[in-house]
Inverse folding.
């Protein structure tokens, strides 16, 4: 359009307008090239704040909202009362973040219903690298040569990394239960290839069976995020760690229960079995004078000879103290 205007020269004002727009066109083209080059140089430092923005959605259908150019509208994550700012992550820092939304407005409540009912995801995104003033003010979503939007979610754009928050809960007639404890996982690109950049991100509610909160319009809602960073696209195997824990605790349990069992056995033997045997032994002595019952190695009952070795040999020393002192029988 600008080209056509320049070649036809219909009037001075049109010429000026077209020159201006042509200049704007060049500037836009340049700024599209420029930030990309600069983006390559920018990298997050450890602890650097990463802003989270999310798709704006209509409250009647949950449809995402596009601007006049057809681009998806991303707006700040709601303000957390803890910080007075929208949710921010810190590059490379594992931490727990509480984000309390002070007042669940009527529109936001309806959006919560959409998220929980899976009519629409809570679709957010974070800058893959720190945004330069250029990149944040100009194209959030790149357009291709035919002016078609590409990478609606930012996924085909290297500028942003999608962060979809899988918020769960249950819907009731008058309120919703929101599973408000969330894990938020972030993968940084390996340092060797592109240090200080984000590779992937995801968030999801955990323990929705037990950890949830009831929300009605006007309530506050605290989201508890457990943020964990991984230095590569690979997740560590968590199960092995859990297995190791079980192994250790099982071992300790076994040792403890073995100790307890031994104690019970000793107590039983000393408190119950031994006195009974001694009683029986005493009875035997008083009665017909038969020896033991053959528990030990000897086996066959014999007439006692005062040492009791026939009957109690198997039980070590317990029998001797009593029997040896009793002298003779028969
Ligand atoms: C989100 O979209 C709605 C409807 O178009 C609009 O009223 C609202 O201002 C938008 N939110 C922000 C933060 O721009
Ligand atoms: C977040 O909130 C929980 C529960 O209210 C609290 O126990 C915890 O200390 C808070 N954590 C931080 C980092 O503020």
């Amino acid at each position: 359009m600008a080209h056509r205007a320049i070649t036809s020269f219909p009037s001075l004002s049109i010429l000026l307008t077209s020159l201006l727009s042509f200049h704007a066109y060049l500037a836009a083209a340049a700024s599209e090239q420029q930030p990309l080059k600069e983006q390559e140089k920018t990298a997050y430092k450890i602890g650097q704040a990463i802003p989270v923005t999310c798709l704006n959605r209509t409250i009647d259908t949950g449809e995402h909202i596009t601007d006049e150019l057809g681009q998806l509208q991303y707006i700040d994550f709601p303000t957390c009362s803890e910080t007075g700012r929208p949710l921010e992550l810190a590059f490379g820092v594992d931490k727990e973040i509480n984000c309390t939304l002070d007042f669940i407005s009527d529109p936001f409540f309806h959006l919560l219903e959409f998220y929980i009912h899976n009519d629409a995801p809570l679709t957010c995104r974070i800058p893959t690298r720190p945004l330069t003033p250029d990149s944040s003010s100009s194209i959030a979503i790149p357009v291709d040569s035919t002016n078609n939007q590409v990478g609606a979610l930012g996924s085909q754009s290297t500028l942003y990394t999608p962060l979809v928050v899988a918020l769960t809960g249950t819907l009731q007639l008058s309120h919703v239960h929101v599973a408000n404890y969330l894990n938020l996982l972030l993968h940084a690109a390996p340092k060797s290839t592109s240090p200080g950049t984000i590779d992937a991100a995801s968030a999801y509610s955990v323990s929705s069976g037990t950890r949830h909160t009831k929300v009605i319009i006007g309530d506050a809602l605290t989201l508890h995020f457990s943020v964990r960073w991984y230095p590569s696209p690979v997740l560590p195997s968590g199960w092995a760690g859990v297995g190791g824990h079980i192994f250790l605790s099982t071992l300790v349990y076994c040792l403890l229960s073995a100790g307890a069992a031994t104690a019970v056995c000793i107590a039983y033997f000393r408190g119950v079995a031994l006195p009974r045997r001694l009683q029986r032994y005493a009875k035997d002595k008083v009665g017909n004078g038969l020896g033991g019952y053959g528990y030990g190695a000897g086996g066959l009952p014999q007439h006692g000879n005062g040492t009791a070795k026939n009957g109690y040999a198997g039980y070590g020393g317990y029998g001797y103290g009593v029997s040896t002192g009793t002298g003779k029988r028969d």
DSSP finds seven helices and 15 strands in the chain. The pocket of 2-acetamido-2-deoxy-beta-D-glucopyranose (ligand 2) is lined by residues 96, 98, 224 (CB under 6 Å).
